[in-house]
């Protein structure tokens, strides 16, 4: 997975700035009768808390110590362990589902595919999910450019993620929804990104200025304290043979 230090400096902000996920996507990815679910690259627990229904066992796996601190505060009843997509500290064939929310693009694909298959029971499910800003909308497309965004956008039917053996082609689901947020919350989302942390102070101010300029000039956003930011949540599920 990613270098854990990539997100250490933004862990607290990440916990409050990033969007949640629609319930329809969670229910589609993970069967109601899945008794053990592993959330890998769990970050601050945004997806973990949606899995924690009180009936199933949820295990969160995350490489960043500071992210794990935030996760344990947010979801204290969940077992949270240090690990990665390539190395999960879990027994063979111990999970009904393994999910990666906004995390599969960080992994070593062959190694993570093999590791997910190891942890899953035969017939278990690998689930991958991304929240994508809907850049079919003009102002959202300009927002992405102003953010210097790192690819988390939707412009049409997304390609299937690359997943190695033993998994084959996935089933797919797209859920359209709207995040209601303030201009400051949109800027906080930008500031929570690992690439933003690596910019100089001058570059960071330029990005923030460009983002606010987009919000200030479009009729859908100008002068508003509450903005409707459209998303598409793309989900993919694979069965372990």
Automatic annotation (TrEMBL):
Gene3D superfamilies, per database record: Vaccinia Virus protein VP39
Domain Methyltransferase type per the UniProt entry, residue ranges: 38-126
A Pfam family matched in the record: Methyltransf_11
Record has Kinase as a keyword: no
Gene Ontology BP, a term: methylation
UniProt cross-references to SUPFAM superfamilies, sorted A to Z: S-adenosyl-L-methionine-dependent methyltransferases
Coiled coil, from the record: none
Keywords: Methyltransferase, Transferase
GO MF annotations in UniProt: S-adenosylmethionine-dependent methyltransferase activity
Protein family membership: Belongs to the methyltransferase superfamily.
Protein name: Class I SAM-dependent methyltransferase
